[in-house]
Structures are given as C-alpha cells and as structure tokens.
Automatic annotation (TrEMBL):
Biological process per Gene Ontology, one example term: response to antibiotic
Subcellular compartments: Cell membrane
Topology in the lipid bilayer: Peripheral membrane protein
Annotated ABC transporter domain residues: 6-235
Keywords per UniProt: Antibiotic resistance, ATP-binding, Cell membrane, Membrane, Nucleotide-binding, Translocase, Transport
N-terminal signal peptide: none
InterPro entries attached to this UniProt entry: AAA+_ATPase, ABC_transporter-like_ATP-bd, ABC_transporter-like_CS, ABC_transporter_ATP-binding, P-loop_NTPase
Gene Ontology MF, one: ATP hydrolysis activity
Main location: membrane
Keyword Nucleotidyltransferase applies: no
Protein name from the UniProt record: ABC-2 type transport system ATP-binding protein
Length: 311
C-alpha cells in the first residue's frame, strides 16, 4: 500500500439540465492506494457505475476533482488508456467477433501484452474460443471481458461486477487471479453485489448510497462497528441470568430470547468465552451449540442503507 492511484474529491455528476436534471453522484470523495484492492458497494442507482465511468474518462464531472495515476481521465485519456484495464459491465466486444480472436486483437494494441494462450487457459476460455461474442453465455462474456481488461498488463484495473453470472468455480478462480494481481503490485477497484467477495478481497471498502459515501474502512473495521458480536448457546430454560451477568465483564448483556436459547452481547473475546463456559460448568449447565456470531459486511450494509444488496 503506497501512493494514491485514484483520488476523487467532492465529485458531482448530473445528467440533464434545469429542473429535469438528475444528480447521480452528489459530492463523493474516495481514494485508492497503490497495490490495493478497493471495493465499492451500493444498491442499484447509488452512483457506483457513474463514479467508475468518470474515473475511466467516459463521464465528465459536473463538479469536483478526479485524478487517476496522477492524470485527468478526460483530458489525459490517451495517456491513461495503456495503463488502465477496464472491465465493463456489458459490451466491450464486437458481436460477431470470436472470443479468442477479440482477445488477440486487444493484445496487439499493447506494447507488452500477457501471453494470450496462458490467459485463455487460466480463464477457461478455450472451449468457447471460436464462438462469436453474441453467442457466448453470460459467464463466458464475463470471463472474456476480464481477460480483455488484463491482457495489456495494466497498472490499475477497474472491474464492474467481475463475477456476475459466474458459477462458484469460476468465481473462485477470478478471486485467486485478483489476489495474484495484488501481490504483483497491481491496483484494483471493483464494484460488486457479492458481500463475500468484498470481505475476502478488499483492503478498503466504500459503501455509497444516493451518490455519497456513507461508510468507509477495511472489512474488519466496518464489521466491528455498530451491533456488537454475539455469543449464543442452548441450555435448560430459566437459567439465573442475573448470576451470569454478574460474572461477565462490564458492558455485557444477557438475554433469553426464546426458552432455553441464550444470547450474550458485548465484546466477544477469549476471556468472555472462558467466563461463560466456567459459569456453566460451575452451575452444572451443558452449553449446547455454543457459537460466536460476528457482524458481517451484509449486516453493515443493511443497517446503513436499509436495503439488501442485489444485482
């Protein structure tokens, strides 16, 4: 993690004019560190794609500053194109072009491309190599789009829903490839609807809604905020909760939300876990199904936006 490869300050993007104007991005600021994976999460219409398109030079900001690799993505687009790999959500290939033919064409546009045959093998494109783009399945189009974004050895890669429509095997393979690129020093930005993807891959997460950043931090930072982690176990009905609470650290809480089902709230750490098991042993209680339930990134998203993150 080093210098910033993307800097966005107070970005505003509006479509249309006058009373009919629609604000897609409303004062958004974010930064992407070199050699990192940054995930941008948000419900549909939050402004994710517009923000990425502004970084790619496809949209001109109404207001604010956008810097990509130290350059302006609109006025310096020609200089940026060889250095930035972009995976579009849809399109990017001619409908009649064969998959590998299209990839080889893109490779020839770069001075030092990756080995196309190795990339085809890695992304499992060999079986559809001679198939016209329009006849590819959704997953095959996604894998081809990823290959086209990577073949030029970019310094920065922007991925819009990189694993949408992929089966679990292809999704895992894509994750492994992203992790390899990060280890090689490539900076990556991805938008995704898969929370597990963001939690596994991202060094930094931005949650945006209605064109603004409403939360930012590493996955662990975000999931440690808000609701505390919980410890659950089952036992006999009607345990002495006052006695159990007295044994726990200050700030803890105990509830029996259903007969024989117990919930402990607070800072769940090894000390608290040992305290609970010791109390149960001292009172002759066999704690069944003892489990720590941690706050997930999806929990955070629902609390912040009140909406599920769906494609």
């Amino acid at each position: 993690m080093g210098d910033l490869v993307i800097e966005i300050e107070d970005l505003v993007v509006r479509y249309g004019r006058g009373k009919a104007a629609v604000t897609a991005v409303a004062g958004l600021s974010l930064a992407v560190a070199q050699g990192s994976v940054t995930a941008v999460l948000g419900p549909n219409g939050a402004g994710k794609t517009t923000t990425m398109e502004t970084c790619e030079g496809y949209r001109r900001p109404t207001r604010g500053r956008v810097s990509v690799l130290g350059l302006d993505p609109v006025s310096d687009r020609r200089a940026l194109m060889p250095r930035v790999g972009v995976m579009l959500q849809e399109g990017g290939a001619w409908s009649g072009a064969r998959a590998v033919e299209m990839l080889r064409h893109v490779a020839r546009l770069h001075a030092n491309p990756l080995d196309v045959d190795l990339l085809v093998q890695r992304l499992d494109l060999a079986g559809c190599g001679r198939t016209p783009y329009r006849r590819l399945s959704g997953g095959e189009k996604q894998r081809l789009a990823l290959a086209m974004a990577l073949v030029g050895r970019p310094e920065l890669v922007i991925l819009d829903e990189p694993t949408a429509g992929l089966d679990p095997h292809a999704r895992r393979a894509t994750w492994e490839l992203v992790e390899e690129l990060r280890r090689d020093g490539v900076s990556l930005v991805l938008t995704t609807h898969h929370m597990e993807e963001a939690e596994r891959l991202a060094d930094q997460v931005y949650v945006i809604d209605r064109g603004r950043v409403i939360a930012a931090g590493s996955p662990s930072e975000l999931t440690s905020r808000g609701a505390a982690n919980t410890l659950r176990f089952r036992g006999p009905m009607g345990l002495d909760l006052r006695s159990l609470l007295a044994a726990l650290p200050d700030g803890s809480g105990v509830r029996e939300p259903a007969p024989g089902s117990y919930l402990i709230l607070g800072k769940i750490d090894p000390h608290l876990l040992a305290t609970v098991t010791a109390w149960c042993a001292a009172h002759g209680v066999l704690a069944d199904d003892l489990a720590v339930e941690r706050h997930t990134l999806e929990d955070v998203f629902l609390e912040l936006t009140g909406r599920e993150l769906r494609p």
